[in-house]
């Protein structure tokens, strides 16, 4: 089990080495369900668990093509409300390379980051937009003081549509 948890942690960790494998898509969340607790060493306090998100990927922004309904694992503290799940539009997906992980989780991706469209017409990610292949001018990115998230205007995604999908 510890090996499995280490593999999941590695799959969910963002690193610049994996930019080419990440896909950024617009769509909407369908559901969010508890999958399993993370096994932690006795010396650590673990507040996260694995959840499975079901996502409808409607429009590719950058990265390898992802379309239709997909399942992705995500480390989070607690269940997401149905209202929040349905409000999420922007998803950063990373393929799970290990076939045994894909089979045991029933998911093909890990969810690196996600964002609803905020009332100000912006998205906020837990990772720098450039680290996941988004070409957003540095002058357009603002780090939210409360959350530490990287926020940018939704309109900035228009220049990132490399697939020609409206």
Structural account:
This protein is mostly beta strands and 166 residues long. The protein has a domain at 2-12 and 21-119. Helices cover 14% and strands 39% of the residues. The longest helix has 11 residues, at 2-12. The chain starts with a helix and ends in a 13-residue tail after the last strand.
Features:
166 residues; mainly beta; five-stranded mixed β-barrel; 3 helices
Write the layout of secondary structure elements.
Blueprint: H1 2-12, E1 23-37, E2 49-62, E3 68-76, H2 82-87, E4 88-95, H3 99-105, E5 109-116, E6 122-125, E7 142-143, E8 150-153
Order of neighbouring strands in the sheet with most strands: 1-2-3-5-4
Provide the helix percentage: 10-25%
Query: Which regions have little confidence, pLDDT < 50, spanning 5+ residues?
Result: 1-20
Which structural class do you get from the secondary structure elements?
A: mainly beta
Q: Let me know the number of strands.
A: 8
- Euclidean distance between termini CA atoms: 43 Å
Q: How many helix segments?
A: 3
Order of helices and strands: HEEEHEHEEEE
> Largest sheet, if any?
5 strands, mixed, barrel
**Arithmetic mean pLDDT:** 82
Q: What general form does the structure show?
A: globular
Q: Tell me the fraction of residues in β-strands, as a range.
A: 35-45%
> Any idea what the radius of gyration is?
16 Å
Describe the structure concisely for a colleague:
The chain is mainly beta and 166 residues long.
């Amino acid at each position: 089990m510890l090996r499995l948890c280490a593999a999941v942690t590695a799959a969910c960790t963002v690193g610049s080495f994996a930019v080419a494998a990440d896909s950024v898509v617009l769509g909407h969340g369908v559901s969010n369900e508890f999958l399993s607790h993370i096994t932690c060493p006795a010396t650590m306090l673990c507040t996260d668990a694995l959840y499975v998100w079901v996502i409808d990927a409607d429009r590719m922004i950058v990265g390898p093509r992802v379309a239709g309904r997909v399942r992705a694992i995500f480390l989070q503290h607690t269940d997401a409300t149905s209202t929040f799940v349905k409000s999420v539009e922007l998803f950063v997906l990373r393929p799970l390379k290990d076939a045994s992980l894909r089979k045991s989780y029933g998911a093909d991706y890990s969810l690196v980051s996600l964002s609803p469209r905020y009332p100000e017409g912006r998205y906020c990610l837990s990772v720098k937009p450039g680290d996941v292949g988004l070409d957003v001018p540095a002058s357009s990115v603002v780090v939210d003081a409360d959350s530490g998230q990287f926020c940018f205007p939704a309109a900035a995604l228009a220049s990132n549509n490399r697939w020609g999908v409206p």
